[in-house]
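Example record for the data management plan.
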Amino acid sequence: MPYKIHFVSLGCAKNVVNCEQMMARCQAAGHILQDAPEGADVAVVNTCGFLESASEEAIEHILRLGKLKEAGELRKILVSGCMTERYGEDVPTELPEVDGILGTGSFQDIVPAVEAVMEGIHPRYFGDINAPVDEFGRVLTTPDHYAYLRIAEGCDNWCAFCIIPKLRGKYRSRPMESVLAEARALAARGVKELIVVAQDITRYGTDWDGRRHLADLLEELCKLDFPWIRLHYLYPEQMDDRLIGVIAREPKILKYLDIPLQHCNDAILRRMNRRGDKAYIEDLLEKLRERIPGLVLRTSLITGLPGEGEAEFEELCQFLWDQRMLRAGVFPYSPEEGTPAAKMDRVDTEEAQRRAELVVDIQSRIMDEWNEAMQGETVEVLCDGFDGQSMMNAGRSYAESPDIDGRIYFTADGPVEAGTFVRVRITGAMDGELTGELVPDFEEVSL
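Corresponding structural encoding:
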């Protein structure tokens, strides 16, 4: 019999793809997907477990669903993903609301897991996290005009602060023919912005023959009917001249690169088990800006790692200010159990948080300067639809990635359909985000 299933996806874009795949498996088995948990037979929470704070968020979701279950508005709860892989049997022990669990190697087992819990069985599925990447369909949950394309699974970087390799396994690239087949299907659906994701897209193909194949893949993707192709996460030591050349010359590849640097101090980078040093990073950023005019850079930074004193922290602040990196995710160091960094000197979590807030202040000043420089400029914007809170249309230029960056709010004669490319003249800023007005098609401007 068909069951009504509600899915919740937490965490990163890779998790979104995993959740979409589970939804497709359930739909293909004849089950019914529904948006709300109320009245569902099963709620599936696909969790993030990268940081303790992410696990806490997952627990809050599970507890809320548990109250619905207690009230008779929901029958069963399944939990999947990184938190389950990380804590295993502790999840149902600590959270008796949970009826079954799936690790990151068992997303393909969602249908038997659903059917098991409905039969009163408590499934525990933990498949091989180093197995080849599952190739099956998806139910897209993003708006129709953009979608994620996951090209690999796992990670071989083994950064000292990161638990991901233990949760997601070794790096495994998807076959290029499979990636391109999925991309063609997304293009046929009318997707305008293709967002290429993996824990590290720059290693794509290295597990086949030791060579990097991201540039080859991007050349093929650029032949497809996508106006925009966006890249998320490029590791600095893997960015060679050929890849930079493809990014620079292909107009479909947005001049927005997400390069997680984490720090700039040589000693801290070594403690993090990061390859390269400050000089290498500075040379790379200079090369990228020389070859890619108008480049917007996003990075991730960690403050408060054991060994980071005032001098190392001040060096990081000066580096960020000198480099003027427009986007930055700033995280206070969290000693995650099972990582080498957790065995280092004791960390002052309050000081790490204070330093993160100071870096965010610097980043806010850099963004304010960007917003000021953008006044009067006309930019191409992909509309996300009408925003009822601001009572304006909202969209993004090449400089804003979905969900992690801000948006551009603009006025027009009426609502602009989501997925439409328009020209917007920037006229102001609102809470750090740009505002503007629609430029009519007949008005000549220089883009």
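Summary line stored alongside the record: The CA atoms of residues 20 and 140 lie 6 Å apart.
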